[in-house]
Amino acid sequence: MGRVYNFSAxxxxxxxxxxxxxxxxxxxxxxxxxxxxxxxxxxKAFDSIIKDAEKDIRELMNIPDNYxxxxxxxxxxxxxxxxxxxxxxxxxxxxxVTGQWAKKAYQEAQMYGEAVAVASSxxxxxxxxxxxxxxxxxxxxDYVYICENNTIYGTKFKxxxxxxxxxxxxxxxSCFLSEPVDVTKYGVIYGGVQKNVGxxxxxxxxxREDLITDDVLPGTPTMLKWKTQADADxxxxxxxxxxxxxxGKVFKWIKKMGGLEAMKAHNEKKAKILYDYLDESKLxxxxxxxxxxxxxxxxxxxxxxxxxxxxxxxAKAAGFENLKGHRTVGGMRASIYNAMPIEGVExxxxxxxxxxxxxx
Length: 360
Ligand SMILES: *Cc1c(COP(=O)(O)O)cnc(C)c1O
Prior knowledge:
By secondary structure, the chain is an alpha/beta fold. The chain folds into two domains: 17-256, Type I PLP-dependent aspartate aminotransferase-like (Major domain) (Aspartate Aminotransferase, domain 2, 3-Layer(aba) Sandwich); 259-358, Aspartate Aminotransferase, domain 1. It has nine helices and 14 strands. It has helices at residues 16-24, 44-61, 75-87, 100-109, 226-231, 241-257, 259-280, 305-317, 342-358; strands at residues 5-6, 67-72, 92-97, 114-120, 143-147, 149-150, 155-156, 167-171, 188-192, 203-208, 285-286, 297-301, 320-321, 332-335. The strands form four sheets. The protein has a seven-stranded mixed beta sheet. A three-stranded antiparallel beta sheet has the order 11-12-14. Helix 2 crosses helix 6 (241-257). The chain binds pyridoxal-5'-phosphate. Residues 10, 75-77, 101, 147, 151, 171, 173-174, 192, 195 line the site of pyridoxal-5'-phosphate. Pyridoxal-5'-phosphate is lined by residues 10, 75-77, 101, 147, 151, 171, 173-174, 192, 195.
């Protein structure tokens, strides 16, 4: 069996080219006679891998010099704790709750200080992004937190909230490197890489230098203190070496594809094919407010659970994998990250049309 079209929300599809290159280098990385998995994280070869990776992501995202780029472990979920531990100087933060991941971060922050939910879209099952142009943000809030792309619900912030001068912290796990960003608008951008950038096990955190200090909450573990990691250039302890190596290859692939502007155009083209069909279909329907639709995660339903199940099963048999919606929302979800080729979405829509004809 060949490769399938993999619509998994994460871990997710990676560029085939990257996987092939990694396969070629598996037994002997560039004449070292060993795999990247087998080499010291203090070796010359790995030093080049991590430095190149940092250089390339800086170039792709146009990251200013006063931001550090950290390669961390623990998943995005561990940053739910690290963010308040490192930033809650006044013990207070504002959270915009637009889905499960934002809610988890909000709940985690409550363990460390006063987390205030200043906006939420829970009233309509997180199917939209609330108006964040004039929120009631406490003056002494240390930061405003968002989950920029809501992986489970398929919404995305198209404009960033008005933080009224407060530091913006964003979990970008499922929209990392999908389009250009203005890094200067954020204090912290972080994400697990397993959605759009690489294999599970790496979190990339891009943090403005003035936010990296020794002044953290009492009891903050050494490993969760950003300063520990920043001072050691992400090599305080053994980093997720192999994952970082693959991320580095993905950065080079994106550069070759034309960078983030090109990625955005590619992603918009792909998403439009699917959304256009959802808008005209009599059977399938998108679940998100059109203005807030994500380019990466596209949830949809037929309105009939049995038919949803039948669709997922038949799609799987036809080579379209992982279209089942998140267990908390049901229905279907197609995650169409950077590495999903346009043909994958075209063929999925063809298949959906056929299914619609046969089932209406
Ligand atoms: C997947 C995901 C997470 C959780 O990531 P882990 O690395 O499993 O902790 C957090 N936030 C968002 C937006 C996600 O999509």
